[in-house]
Amino acid sequence: MATQDDNTPVVFDEKATLLTKDGLRKLEEELESLKKVKRREVAARIKEAISYGDLSENSEYEEAKNEQAFVEGRILELEEKVKSAQVIKSNKGVIVQLGAKVKIKDMENNEVSEYTIVGSTEADPLEGRISNESPVGAALLERKVGDELEIVAPKGMVKYKIMSLSY
Length: 167
Prior knowledge:
The chain has 2 domains: 21-87, Helix Hairpins (Orthogonal Bundle), CATH 1.10.287.180; 101-166, Transcription elongation factor, GreA/GreB, C-terminal domain (Chitinase A, domain 3, Roll), CATH 3.10.50.30. It is 37% helix and 23% strand. The protein contains 3 helices and 7 strands. The strands form 2 sheets. A 5-stranded mixed β-sheet has the order 5-4-3-7-6. A two-stranded parallel sheet has the order 1-2. A hairpin with a 2-residue loop joins strand 6 (148-153) and strand 7. Helix 1 (21-50) runs antiparallel to helix 2 (59-83). The longest helix has 30 residues, at 21-50.
């Protein structure tokens, strides 16, 4: 079970969008940009396309309407994520929880990797941010430095050792 700075248990709502403070800020920035900038750009494109006349054969109008539908759908999605956001608080402990930066060593080839465990919304494996729902992320949760673990990954069974942990 995750704990807060004062070691009280953290309860995550199943419907919550788990985010770091930075992840929530990025979603809010994207939402703001879509509402204030992109909506206006698309509306201007639609207005211009309408000025061309016959809408039945107007590809610019169709493209603009499709983009408008995409933008509005993304706005709804982001609003829901922001509304249900639950910010991950660092527990500064010795156990791997959401928000932890974990350095692990592959016991087979001695390669060391570093990952930050985040909610699925923020996951970006290329940036070293893995979801708590991924095989590696889920296996690391509730572990501590020195623990060795076996993970069934897409490439087969992998053995790791936790080298360090920070928040």
